[in-house]
Design brief:
This protein is an alpha/beta fold. It contains 20 helices and 11 strands. It folds into 3 domains: about 60 residues; about 240 residues, P-loop containing nucleotide triphosphate hydrolases (Rossmann fold, 3-Layer(aba) Sandwich), CATH 3.40.50.300; about 120 residues, no CATH class. It has an 11-stranded mixed beta sheet with strand order 2-1-11-10-9-3-8-7-4-6-5. Strand 1 and strand 2 form a beta hairpin.
Amino acid sequence: MMNSHFIEKLAILEDMAREADLLGVPMVRSTLLRLSLNWNDIVANQLYGYLLNQVDGGFFIEDVFKLPSEQNEIDGELSLGDVLGREDIQFRHKIDRLPLHILAAGTSGCGKTNFAKVLIEEAYHSGVGCISISDPKSEYADIAAKYPEFLLLRWNDLRFNPLTPPPNVPRNEWHQTIVGHMAQTFNFWEGAQSLLIRLLANLSEAKAKPTIVDLMTALEMEKPRYKQKDFLVMGTVSSRLELILYTCRDIVLAESSMLPLLSERHHIIQTTGLMSEIESWLLEFMLIWEFMYRVWNPEKRKMTLHVYDECQHRLFSREKERNAHKISASLISMLVDEARAMNICICSLSQEPSSLVNAVLNNSYLKMAFHLGSGGEVRVMKEAMGLDKDQANVLHYMETGEAIARLAGGFMDPFPVNIDVFQGLGKEPDAGFKAHQSEMRRRLYEDAGIGVEGDEKSGSREGVQQSFGEEYDVLD
């Protein structure tokens, strides 16, 4: 418990200032605030928390932050909330700044998901061409319930062949990209990339649309030149290909791809229950696919918003940068840096900003720091946002829905905001909602040339034998 002596002294000073009508005097407000911070760190934090809980917010906000004085300083098409201490000024964001990316960090229950939903709703009403949501905890179904244009998919509803390049993308360039992607995601041994690229080049000559089954078959038939090292490389690659195949069999063995159509419409992908390693591979693959699709199809570069919830353990893990020395630059970091040129906005939500790649921490135009209980995470956001000591200290005491925002242009000082509350329909999805979603999935499959059950799988060995000329056991 806190020593009541300090609280009593502070409360007496506060009461005296209030009775004398001096709380509005900046010097008095600053003096009371500093009194709460001049003891040792533990007592200072306790007293600071007392002030935040007992005194009106206007008492300290202007002593810690420089607030916008006019709406045009933070104006834009997307209305996200209001400025704490200046509730007459809305917290707004420019739609043409979306491709410069957004980062929202905070503990569980602090309001990150609500912020994402408000952003999604505003982007939807502002005409953003495509909104894609990665939903690891099945928290965004209310978006699809409120806006019927959103297609709700489970991860195992997806259908594509990862070895088939996007339209107009050269096959050899695509193979180099996806091999680098797999090497980074699965931390392959040195030598694995050249092996896979060679096998894919041979397969492409033997078959128009080779699959992972064909690649595994070709790998089985490979004769190692340097026994021990090559067997280690081949074993590692083979085990990861098997992991993809037997986890995502229905997804990766489809004859046709739904990705070109999916990139044109709003959608939510629920990844609940998918193991983290495969989830990372799947989400990063889809981002790479869209990036390459836009590079080679300039007419497809309409504004797109990608929301990645709890991304620190999935798409944007710092571990990928730590392993990058084995495969040159981190591919995911390059994607974050270059996605803006393709009109792609990445909105990252994270409980642990310390686990994020530097590209997300450094290259997000709008950074949002919600309640952060851990001193380590506070330090990371303090450095990323350029907060001073007093501003960073506020992060320990933010209420749900409150955050410190910082823009990289326009009004560039950090300022506290209160995020609007997303208004869902307030009911569980009913039979009508499920029937509507089922019909949209059926139409998507049909338009993409995929069976409703996704049963037209490829992966036969025809053509592989012609190229390699040997018999081998049939995979199930």
